[in-house]
Write a structure and sequence with these properties.
Blueprint (H helix, E strand, L loop, with lengths): L1 H36 L3 H10 L1 H12 L8 E4 L6 E5 L11 E7 L4 E8 L6 E7 L8 E6 L18 E6 L4 E9 L10 E8 L27 E4 L2 E6 L9 H11 L3 H17 L5 H13 L5
Parallel strand pairs: 1-3
Antiparallel strand pairs: 2-9, 3-8, 4-7, 4-9, 5-6, 5-8, 10-11
Helix pairs in contact: 2-3, 4-5, 5-6
Length: 300
């Protein structure tokens, strides 16, 4: 009986030690989680709004996204004001986010700010490295609005979120996701906001031709439907050639470089000869373009 009693006591003590150890490990994990969350303004803001457990779940979800295609609201060009409509109380669900993109280089510095148009909005945004689909996003930094009150407290209307002086870690595409996080009971309808990006690292594609402005020889390409020279419409489709340049772009380069009319006509002739050789236009189309060049008053 003594042996049975001793054995039972040992098992009980072992279970108590194991349970205590598990509880200690759980407490340590919670402490580690809380410490990491409270290491940043963004983490502290999330904890203040939703509690540490949900805040930790939000950050885990941010870092473990499912792969779904992203539809972008637009691209962020330097100091250009863009506007959007966020889903009311979209929380941290990427399905409810508005996405914006830009291209940047490693070491460049960017500033991003989101400003509410609706006073009741509770704006929040994340900056991700990567783009195209949610599975390709790497969370970099987020900003909430837990600063001095600017509107009705019941609506979580705090100061607008922004980041300043953030150094880009790599060269490539970046994505900004914007939400109305948790507007209070007084908020209704869509949550309007504006977003502005600035800094040395913000590069956009102004003309939308697939070439970012820092490498585009014609950042504002002439995309008229046909090749037109000094008001003369050749009727030839104005297509992209290479280096993100249209036929009209290259003809404009000829006009800018020509010292006289003959030089301009000769430059256009060289272009059209090359386009015929590449199969971009026919001989007849070449003749129509050269005819317009000959009739023009370029250079003026």
């Amino acid at each position: 009986m003594n042996k049975i009693f001793m054995l039972t006591a040992c098992i009980a003590i072992s279970l108590m030690v194991s349970c205590t150890k598990d509880q200690t490990n759980e407490s340590i994990q919670q402490l580690d989680s809380k410490t990491s969350l409270l290491d940043s303004d963004f983490g502290r803001a999330l904890v203040e709004k939703v509690g540490i457990e949900k805040a930790n779940g939000i950050l885990q979800q941010v870092n473990n996204q499912q792969r779904t295609p992203i539809t972008y609201e637009g691209q962020l060009c330097p100091d250009e004001v863009n506007t959007g409509d966020a889903v009311l109380r979209g929380f941290n669900d990427l399905a409810n986010a508005d996405f914006w993109s830009f291209y940047g280089s490693a070491g460049d510095v960017v500033n991003i700010s989101v400003s509410r148009v609706n006073c009741e909005m509770d704006p929040i945004f994340y900056l991700f490295e990567g783009g195209g689909d949610t599975g390709s996003l790497t969370f970099l930094i987020g900003e909430d609005d837990n600063n001095p009150l600017s509107c009705t407290p019941a609506c979580f209307a705090w100061s607008d979120p922004s980041i300043s002086g953030f150094v880009l870690p790599s060269t490539g595409y970046y994505t900004v996701a914007v939400w109305d996080f948790a507007s209070g009971s007084c908020a209704t309808g869509t949550m309007d906001y504006s977003i502005v990006a600035s800094g040395s690292g913000i590069v956009c594609d102004t003309d939308g031709d697939g070439c970012y402005d820092d490498v585009d020889p014609h950042p504002n390409s002439n995309e008229d439907p046909t090749v037109t020279i000094d008001g003369c419409d050749s009727g030839v489709d104005n297509v992209f050639i290479d280096d993100c340049s249209t036929m009209n772009d290259l003809i404009s380069d000829c006009a800018a470089a020509a010292a006289n009319h003959d030089e301009f006509v000769d430059c256009v002739a060289q272009l059209t000869n090359a386009w015929v050789a590449e199969g971009l236009i026919t001989g007849r189309q070449k003749g129509r373009i050269q005819s317009c060049a000959g009739q023009s008053g370029i250079p003026y």
